[in-house]
Amino acid sequence: MPSLDDRYRAMLFETPECIPVSVGILPAAWMKYREELEAITARHPALFGQSGSRDFDAVGGTYVAGDHVDAWGCVWQNIRTGCESIVTGHPVARREDVRSLHMPTTDIGFPHGFMYLRLQDLRGFEELMVDFAEEPEELGMLVDLVLQYNLRQVARHLPAIQAEGQIIGFGDDLGMQLSLPMSPAKWRKYLKPCFEAIYRPYRDAGHYVYMHTDGHIWEIIPDLAECGVNVVNPQVRANGLDNLARVCKGKVCVSLDLDRQLFPFCTPAEIDAHVRESVKTLGSKQGGLWLVAEIGDDVPLENCEAIFTALERYRGYFS
């Protein structure tokens, strides 16, 4: 497994020995493939280390089938254990309900979707988009309420970090498949100040910020860097390698989410070519690139093997 030092060296453009790589295997994939997948991971100790026995059915939280209600009153629905749930119950369905909304008294830290997606979970996508189009007073009220809750989480979390110079992870999906859900100008007006306010205390304390964000977001990656993001985790297909190279290469480290939409349907040779092209386009001896692969239960086992092999093969290749 690449050393922790290489993660920092790549992030800071300080000539890592190799490209840091990681693999995330979703619970549904373990539940489906079980010992067969475990045998494949055992053949790649450079990626997975020495694994012991695993409970393939050990799934918790919102990955369990059924309804789940979070601290804000959003209802998460899951129809299949092993896969993630989605929000189907929005507690602020009417715009006027914003005026009676109170932040939770429970502190939950920074779950995935802590700022923009939290607004969407509370209002529902269509209603939130109307809010951004019409810009009523309630939109600003809702954004500020969620921000103030997040700043409370910062105040509780930051002092508890013992070691210096930690990489602190955040996740919030800001894009759709082909575009941002709003214009870049409106994102900068309403949301950029929020991320700046949340991330800046960590940076001022000497830490680093890693931000996962799915969807088409390449236009605002420079803005995220200005907010304090050191490592951005975008998807290939929604952004395009050339766009990511144009706004990121030599400027902000990319933890590249390799093409999950390709993995279920391509050949092992196409996987090899995809990983090689990604490294050739975004890689550099100076650093600035991590590689991430996520494995769902729709990825054939031979493609799982090909992904792991390609990560090992090209993590030492720099253009």
Topology:
Layout lengths: L3 H8 L9 E5 L1 H7 L1 H8 L2 H4 L17 E4 L5 E4 L7 E4 L26 H8 L1 H10 L2 H21 L9 E5 L12 H7 L1 H13 L3 E5 L8 H7 L3 E3 L2 H4 L1 H8 L4 E5 L10 H15 L6 E7 L5 H14 L5
Parallel strand pairs: 1-9, 5-6, 6-7, 7-8, 8-9
Antiparallel strand pairs: 2-3, 3-4
Helix pairs in contact: 3-14, 5-6, 7-9, 9-10, 13-14
Instruction: Tell me, briefly, the overall form.
Output: globular
Query: How much helical structure, as a percent, in the residues?
Result: 40-55%
Q: Separation of termini?
A: 22 Å
Please give the number of β-strands. Answer: 9
Low-confidence stretches: none
Q: Helix tally?
A: 14
Largest sheet: 6 strands, parallel
Q: Which value, in Å, is the CA radius of gyration?
A: 20 Å
Query: Which structural class best describes the helix and strand composition?
Result: alpha/beta
Which series of helices and strands comes N to C?
A: HEHHHEEEHHHEHHEHEHHEHEH
Average pLDDT metric? 96
Q: β content, as a range?
A: 5-15%
